Amino acid sequence: MKKDVTDLALLILRLGAGGLMLTHGIPKINMLFASPIQFADPIGVGDTLSLIFALIGEVIAPILIIIGFKTKLAAIPSVITMAVAAFIVHANDDIATKEKALLYLICFVTLLLAGAGKYSIDGMKK
């Protein structure tokens, strides 16, 4: 019984965190087609590459997390994206401004450590 509740909790976490993250990532897709691309470059790799990294962490990885495919690996780009947002982009901001990135970071670190649970593609293999 306890394992079923844990698996249900992981499903809710995957759907919630992954789905809500898509609301931040999907609007950024249009930025790829802007000329020139204008996007923050917090780690010094250029506007275009920074945008691509953000899209991986905010669109591609969350889709994989939602379906529970390679969840632990998929959580890594989202963890990195949210760590950059919280600790670099919002480094000088108050905690209220960083809060959303920190909450997502906590969710994705939890999924990185715990995995997807049995209600996922990953869980079907077991």
Write up this protein:
The structure is a single chain. The protein has 126 residues and is mainly α. It has one domain (2-124). Helix content is 73%, strand content 0%. The chain has helices at 2-29, 47-67, 71-89, 95-114, 121-124. The radius of gyration is 15 Å and the shape is globular. The model has no long low-confidence stretch (mean pLDDT 94).
Order of helices and strands: HHHHH
N→C terminal distance: 17 Å
Give me the oligomer status: single chain
- Write down the overall mean pLDDT: 94
Strand elements, count: 0
Number of separate structural domains: 1
Taken from the alpha-carbon principal axes, the silhouette is globular
Structural class: mainly alpha
Give a short account of the largest sheet. Answer: none
The helix fraction, in percent, is over 70%
Number of helices: 5
Question: What Rg do the Cα atoms give?
Answer: 15 Å
Low-confidence stretches: none
